[in-house]
Specification:
The chain is an alpha/beta fold. The chain has two domains: about 230 residues, P-loop containing nucleotide triphosphate hydrolases (Rossmann fold, 3-Layer(aba) Sandwich); about 200 residues, 3-Layer(aba) Sandwich (Rossmann fold), CATH 3.40.50. About 30% of the residues lie in helices and about 25% in strands. The strands form four sheets. A seven-stranded parallel beta sheet has the order 3-2-4-1-5-6-7, sandwiched between helices. Strands 11-10-12-13-21-20 form a six-stranded mixed beta sheet. Helix 6 links the parallel strand 5 and strand 6. Helix 1 runs parallel beside helix 2 and helix 1 packs across helix 8. Its cofactor is Mg(2+). This is Hydrogenobyrinate a,c-diamide synthase. Pathway: Cofactor biosynthesis; adenosylcobalamin biosynthesis; cob(II)yrinate a,c-diamide from precorrin-2 (aerobic route): step 9/10. It catalyses: hydrogenobyrinate + 2 L-glutamine + 2 ATP + 2 H2O = hydrogenobyrinate a,c-diamide + 2 L-glutamate + 2 ADP + 2 phosphate + 2 H(+).
């Protein structure tokens, strides 16, 4: 076991691309699965706030997929969180980090901040660039050369050619990249490409289609094994220097358990509520809670002895009829007098209705699907005291939804940002569209456990 404070030569690499749609998720998931098939312990990570890709990563790697987002958690926590994720439950042999959007695409108006390149610099990892070569020849080398020169602090150690049209096309591309001194570590033809199904907010989460997801991951592993030089990929990962930062520790972050008994905190899961960060439950447990999962689609009651509830994000709109049919659980949540923290999907579930279908009625709003995608990072301030936050507490989060509520906020709003009020604080309930990462706000976990203990 590696000491969390000792220098650790963790092999690692970042899978990136010039833009979205080049095949990062295909390659990253396939790499994770293929390396695991070799008997390696692989730690999966994702740049940005995305919840869905880490689900595929977790299936491929056999351990939780974790996010690395400087906007949500701060630059100073990125390498410690990487080390933590690569250390539990057992130390990894290699870490694979999937990027977000294009390599240099960061938070709007903040240049490269929160970009894949930014994270690659923070964890000092080489980049494997996935390149969609459709309708592209020698110009691919110019594109890679430009990507490499744009930020000298980012080291592109190799390229994986995706959607190659023919053996002749592959030869042309390899010759061109040899001219600029960038090695090609693999090539995937258009005919061989494997993808997972998608819908209005991206890929379909693993939890909604487990058997099919297993088949997709297996196919991706076979694809990578047959098209990628895994030995060269591992050699590239081993060029990363040792990690010298200490691992992030949930117990230290939250200040240890609150004392007294261990209140049961019920955390929603299942196909309708798949959006959560692994660190959330780790922090709750470190703060002294007994964390128990429940599935609002199938469980007719909250876990025995539940004294607080967390309902995160997901796709209630896809499962609205089944959620409505579980009337016993809806009624229990409507009357539950303990603290509740809800984000996005949780906000919709706690309202009166979603697209006219009855929900819990714990909060006074109705919700509906819209044709507009609300997406982006937010800088918010807590607008009222709640089970998770104190009035005036600054928080960074993100929104990602195609629904709207009426009203958009309660008499006591959860947040203020951009001159407006958002979400609901109603009694002991805190609910809004804003997704936050509690590694940056461990006091939220401690505050919730303390409220549950009271």
């Amino acid at each position: 076991m590696v000491s969390p404070d000792a220098s650790w030569p963790l092999p690692r690499l970042v899978v990136a691309a010039p833009a979205s749609g080049h095949g990062k998720t295909t390659v990253a998931t396939g790499l994770l699965a293929a390396l695991r098939r070799r008997g390696l312990t692989v730690s999966p990570h994702k740049v940005g706030p995305d919840y869905i890709d880490p689900g595929y990563h977790a299936l491929a790697a056999g351990r939780p997929g974790r996010n690395l987002d400087p906007w949500l958690v701060g630059e100073e926590r990125i390498a410690p969180l990487l080390r933590h994720g690569a250390s539990v439950p057992t130390p990894a042999d290699v870490a694979v980090v999937e990027g977000v959007m294009g390599l240099h695409d960061g938070a709007v108006g903040r240049r490269s901040y929160a970009s894949t390149a930014h994270v690659a610099r923070l964890i000092d990892a080489p980049v494997l660039l996935v390149l969609d070569t459709t309708a592209q020849g020698r110009s691919a080398a110019a594109l890679v050369l430009g990507m490499r020169a744009f930020d000298p602090g980012v080291r592109i150690g190799g390229v994986l050619l995706n959607r190659v049209g023919s053996p002749r096309h592959e030869t042309l591309l390899r010759d061109a990249l040899a001219e600029v001194g960038v090695p090609v570590l693999g090539a995937v033809t258009r005919a061989a490409e494997v993808t997972a199904p998608s819908r209005h907010l991206g890929l379909v989460p693993v939890a909604e289609r487990a058997p099919e997801s297993l088949a997709v991951v297996a196919a991706l592993a076979e694809l990578v094994e047959s098209t990628v030089d895994l030995d060269a990929v591992l050699d590239l990962a081993r060029t990363a220097p040792p990690l010298t930062v200490s691992a992030w520790d949930p117990a230290s972050a939250v200040g240890g358990p609150t004392g007294g008994d261990r209140p049961v905190v019920a955390v929603a899961g299942g196909p309708a509520f798949t959006f959560s960060y692994a660190e959330t439950t780790e922090l709750l447990a470190a703060a002294g809670a007994t964390v128990v999962r429940f599935d609002p689609l199938r469980d007719s009651a909250l876990p025995a002895g539940a004294r607080a509830v967390v309902v995160g994000g997901g796709f209630p709109e896809v499962h609205v009829e089944a959620l409505a049919a579980n009337s016993a659980l809806r009624a229990e949540l409507a009357d539950f007098d303990g603290p509740i923290v809800a984000e996005c999907a949780g906000l919709l579930y706690l309202g009166r209705s979603l697209d006219g279908v009855p929900m819990c009625g714990r909060l006074p709003h109705t919700a509906r699907m819209t044709g507009t995608l609300t997406l982006g990072y937010r800088e918010a301030v807590a607008a009222a005291d709640s089970p998770a936050h104190r009035t005036g507490e600054p928080v960074r989060g993100h929104e990602f939804h195609r629904t709207a509520t009426d009203p958009g906020h309660g008499d006591r709003a959860a947040w203020r940002w951009d001159g407006g009020r958002h979400g609901f604080v109603d009694g002991r309930v805190h609910a809004s569209y804003l997704h936050t990462h509690w590694a940056a706000h461990p006091s939220a976990a401690r505050r919730l456990v303390e409220a549950a203990a009271r």
